[in-house]
Amino acid sequence: MYKKIKRLIDFFLGLIILALIWPIIIIVYIILKIDLGGKIIFKQERLGLNMKPFIIYKFKSMKDDTTLSHNERITKVSFWLRRSGLDELPNIFNIIKGDMSFVGPRALMAHDDTMPKEFLNPERYKVKPGVFGLAQYHGRRDITNDAKLKYDLEYVKIESFKVDVKLFFLSIYEVITEIFGYFKKSK
């Protein structure tokens, strides 16, 4: 039953959240325009429900100059955006559009030779990809690919309204803590 209404929840909650966060999106856009210049919205093909490709929207977080090393392309502003997760604010448009959900496994690149083949497990793609997921809750950047896949497959089995609400609020709390923690460290 929940799977049938999850899309409606994502759509209406997405509209409400967009109405609340649009000033933040505009501010981040302006800051990135000053910091990085060029196109600020990054688009990339990812795998969605049933492995169907879609275009994900994120804020650009690297300089366009490909002659620089990976670390040289990341500015202090873009490092903070990535660390806080604010580079993913444009995902709200993917959620409203129906390509993604608030909660689900991370959307992986459609063409990535470095991605372990285990991540192409069709079970993982029985739900829409999400901004927040069980794997992110259990470590975000600090867990192995095997653990990420384990948590993604576990989420597919336990997906429910209760699980989604819990993951949504715990993840929001983590993002807010990360943002304010960064400012405390910067002083």
Write a brief caption for the model.
With 187 residues, this protein is mostly helical. The protein has helices at residues 2-35, 70-73, 76-84, 91-97, 134-137, 145-158, 161-186; strands at 41-47, 53-59, 101-103, 130-132.
Chain-wise SSE layout:
Blueprint: H1 2-35, E1 41-47, E2 53-59, H2 70-73, H3 76-84, H4 91-97, E3 101-103, E4 130-132, H5 134-137, H6 145-158, H7 161-186
Parallel strand pairs: 3-4
Antiparallel strand pairs: 1-2
Helix pairs in contact: 1-4
Description:
The protein has one domain. 52% of the residues lie in helices and 11% in strands. It has helices at 2-35, 70-73, 76-84, 91-97, 134-137, 145-158, 161-186, and strands spanning 41-47, 53-59, 101-103, 130-132. The strands form two sheets. It has a two-stranded antiparallel ribbon. Strands 3-4 form a two-stranded parallel sheet. α1 (2-35) packs antiparallel against α4 (91-97). The longest helix has 34 residues, at 2-35. It is globular. It starts with a helix and ends with a helix.
Count of DSSP E strands?
Answer: 4
Helix/strand structural class:
mainly alpha
Number of helices: 7
**SSE order:** HEEHHHEEHHH
Unreliable stretches covering 5 or more consecutive residues: none
Helix content: 40-55%
Average pLDDT over all residues: 89
The amount of beta strand, in percent, is 5-15%
Distance between the amino and carboxyl termini: 49 Å
Main β-sheet, spatial strand arrangement: 1-2
Q: What shape does the CA trace take?
A: globular
Largest sheet: 2 strands, antiparallel
Number of domains: 1
Radius of gyration: 17 Å
